[in-house]
């Protein structure tokens, strides 16, 4: 998916789509070309944001910056904040 295209993500997508949570798992799956798109929290550490954005550019994966870590964790129905979510190819 080209960067610059618009995507709409709703809470149901977070709940029902296959995904990995966290930087390490997302990067591992991205290196295997198994990631469809990434959601990055607006309030994540600058180092994490830079790492994820660069990897997305390298692997041609769309990166969406949206919501806080707490909001993303809640949308994924986990009991902790989440800075990075990688949605898997279906």
TrEMBL record:
Q: Which GO terms describe its cellular component?
A: ribosome
Q: Which InterPro entries match?
A: Ribosomal_eL30-like_sf, Ribosomal_eL8/eL30/eS12/Gad45
Ribosomal protein eL8/eL30/eS12/Gadd45 domain residues are 20-89
Instruction: List the Pfam families hit by this protein, alphabetically.
Output: Ribosomal_L7Ae
Please indicate which superkingdom the organism of origin belongs to.
Answer: Bacteria
Protein name per its UniProtKB record:
50S ribosomal protein L7Ae-like protein
């Amino acid at each position: 998916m080209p960067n610059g295209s618009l995507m709409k993500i709703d809470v149901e997508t977070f709940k029902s789509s296959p995904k990995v949570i966290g930087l390490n798992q997302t990067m591992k799956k991205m290196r295997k070309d198994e990631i469809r798109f990434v959601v990055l929290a607006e309030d994540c550490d600058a180092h994490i944001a830079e790492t994820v954005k660069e990897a997305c550019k390298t692997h041609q994966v769309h990166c969406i910056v949206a919501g806080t870590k707490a909001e993303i964790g809640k949308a994924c129905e986990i009991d902790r904040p989440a800075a990075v979510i990688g949605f898997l190819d279906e």
